[in-house]
Amino acid sequence: MENRGITFGYGFLSQESSFDVQFSLIEYDGSHSYFRAYLVGLLNTILVSVIGIIFATIIGVVVGISRLSSNYLIERTAAIYVEFFRNIPLLLQIFFWYFAALRALPLPEKAEPMFGVFFLTIKGFFVPAFVWNNLDIFIYSVIAAIIAIVFVRIYARKKQENQGIQTPVLSISIGLLIILPLLSFFLGGVDATVEIPVIKQLSQTSFTYEGGLKLPPELISLALALSLYTATFIAECVRAGVQGVSKGQKEAAASIGLTPNQVLKLVVMPQALRIIIPPTTNQYLNLTKNSSLAAAIAYPDLVLVFAGTALMQTGRAIEIVSITMLTYLTLSITISIFMNWYNKKIAIKEK
Amino acid sequence: MNKLNFLSPDKNNLYAYLYSGISLFSLSILLVFLNSFFSLDLTSFLPGTISYFLPLIIGFIGLHLIRIEYSGIKFLDIINKNINTNKFNALLSLLIIFAVIKSLPPLLSWFIIDANFAGDSKDACSGSGACWAYIKTWFNRFMYGMYPNAEQWRINLSFIALAFLGGVGFFATEKFKKYLTLYYVVVYPIIAFLFIFFFISGGPIFFDFSYGIIAAVISIIIGFFIPSKFKMYYFLIIPITIYILLKYVFFYEELIELGKIQAFEWVETGAWGGLSLTFIVSFFCLIFCFPVGLFLSLGRRSDLPIIKYISIGFIEFWRGVPLITVLFMSSVMFPMFLPEDMFIDKLVRVIIAISLFEAAYVAEVIRGGLQALPRGQYDAAKSLGMGYWKMHIFVILPQALKLVIPGIANTFLALVKDTPLIFVVGLLEIVGMLNLAKTNPEWLGFAMEGYVFASIVFFIICYAMSKYSYNLEQKYKTER
């Protein structure tokens, strides 16, 4: 390395980066440091991973349960979806959504509004944004509601253990989550106005929307591809989990007089979750790692911003690649520690 | 005659319910069919929303009327059991049927009816459908990358030959079955490498080496006709004899002096591409990652702490980072650690990187199989006086590997689907070639066709692999 005149050190992180990033969650421009560029990339990676995980879970659970349906058509549709999306490389799917499907969208000036406020255009998805007054009080009220729910649950469990009476925890929780933030609107002076995107002419032929939130097409196609692809694997995990609960368990539960809902909630789901959680964790990890494919369509994630642009500018390959890899390692280990904790919590408590 | 109650159809007036139900159901399907295929709206005299939802309502009533349990008509019972068990299922079935009918015409017209098949330039594609002429024009590029057109038969020849040599196992008689493992694990990869190096790359092969292979192949072929009594002596004597004959009698002195043969023009790996590159990369990664993964999994369960922790660290590291950063590392970081005059080809670096990456996953899969075996198997093998290697080769691994066939197949599938990522280092396999073709100024605007084409290709490959693995799983399934 010395022969090639390469020095080693992490001092460059505080230097001025002098490049711009298209899409960033925190304030950033060329005058900020490389470290801040790293943070921008990291946050974008986390953003797309979280969106992907949420949607993949929802689609995966729905499809997984559909695969167990007694309805032939539904079962087949779900099976075709799984076989199709699982057998096509993720990169190809990302390219398909970005270069083919989303390019077929209309220009901003020709876009038809959906429900009057959403604009799906070739330049991105424009959605209304909330403009908050006293946002902090609203957040406090949500936190208070969550704490209250935890207390209600502890109380309900104690009551059931002592007196055998069940409390409708779910409806109380939902009520608390709605009522406390609502109170903050009336009493705490919280105020939210909706800002609807409005079309604006930039030049003779170029239009865009102003106000509201803009989701860039890179983010949409990446999140879409990631969640559709990972959902197929999660669906298979869910199917295996529910099938793994033996029939005798359901029959036994029904014979002691539980209602079908109770059978599902108290007998089937807890056992199925034990089978579902470990492989699903792996899928979440895969999704997070796969989000690095963003580099292929120029979504400014960690790999593109840091291991791409920053590496080209500074030429510090070893430092930057090692930081990037360490970051992904940390992300993976964090998710797996969290899921292990959750898995342990729901695992069979053997005496 | 019983009274008709249309709210709860029963068996007594079976045919009255059946005919009214089926006619309503068929009417709803006909409405949607006419609407989507001929854009005829028979119900346009109704208000918009009602007209829109009318087929759904009619079909729903129709399905409700034919929902009669144990009707005694076989076909009806099958329908009721499969798509019409209750109101919710009936609604979902209807929605799916309508969605399929609705989406057929646009798909058909895009794929076939309005599509352009002939022509060799962009002007040929004037229709609203797909432009398959684009795929046709670029087909060679998608298959062979930047490989010179005149030389492409070399790739075809190698692949056909390798497929034939790979299929030998299916024709092997009972007697040769035991050599198959050796053949596939050691001999076949070497032959494959030589084929690719000599034919596709056009590299020099040293004569001694190729003589040896020809000698071995000829003697194996002759070996089929030798009585088994003499086989032992035969395989000791004949290959060496053929080798000497080939080298010193049949061929010219000059060539031996030269010591190598280079029959074809050298094509550097940067020019390789397309689907053939996908195959080459997947093939070598499959071959390398399996043994490495096997040793890693054994290492992870080893009693020696150093080996154990090195294996754990290795596996967890590769599993924790995305493949794209591994490829970055192999392309920008790795060369810095090499001596200045040393150069490793891009393709080789990529194959090593992907192999190591997938080996970590293979290791975890095999570890699952090893852990699933009961302790008794280990104890039994040890009590027979087997050592570590003997125990693993003859007792543990055959059972463990059989258990994890689906897992290994999944890892291999993931590997094949990961190959497009090599665009990071500038190697363009089929997806990379698509992106290149897409930016060609003479062929702008056909991204969709390209991606659909590549999707179909990958789907066929991966689906075939997963079906094959399922067959293997069934074949080796034993009752436990």
By CATH's scheme, which homologous superfamily of the domain at 2-100 and 219-346 in chain A applies? MetI-like
Low-confidence stretches of chain B: none
The CATH class of the largest domain in chain B turns out to be Mainly Alpha
CATH-defined fold name of the domain at 2-100 and 219-346 in chain A: MetI-like fold
CATH topology of the largest domain in chain B: MetI-like fold
Shape of chain A: globular
Largest sheet of chain B: 2 strands, antiparallel
What's the level 1 CATH class of the domain at 2-100 and 219-346 in chain A?
Mainly Alpha
Main beta-sheet strand count, sense and barrel state of chain A: 4 strands, antiparallel
> In what order do the strands lie side by side in the largest sheet of chain A?
1-2-3-8
Averaged pLDDT of chain B, please? 82
Shape of chain B: extended
Commentary on this structure:
The complex is a heterodimer of chains A (351) and B (480). Chain A is an alpha+beta fold and 351 residues long. Chain A has a domain at 2-100 and 219-346: MetI-like (MetI-like fold, Orthogonal Bundle), CATH 1.10.3720. Chain A is built from ten helices and eight strands. Chain A has a four-stranded antiparallel sheet. In chain A, helix 2 (72-86) packs across helix 6 (217-244), helix 4 runs antiparallel to helix 5 and helix 7 packs antiparallel against helix 8 (260-290). Chain A is globular, with a radius of gyration of 25 Å. The mean pLDDT of chain A is 83. Chain B is an all-alpha fold. Chain B folds into three domains: 14-113; 141-147 and 267-475, MetI-like fold; 205-261, no CATH class. Helices cover 70% and strands 1% of the residues of chain B. Chain B contains 20 helices and three strands. Chain B has a two-stranded antiparallel ribbon. In chain B, helix 16 (375-383) runs antiparallel to helix 17. Chain B starts with 13 loop residues before the first helix and ends in a 5-residue tail after the last helix. In chain B, 29% of the residues are buried. The model of chain B has no long low-confidence stretch (mean pLDDT 82). Chains A and B meet through helix 2, helix 3, helix 9 and helix 10 of A and helix 3, helix 4, helix 13, helix 14 and helix 18 of B.
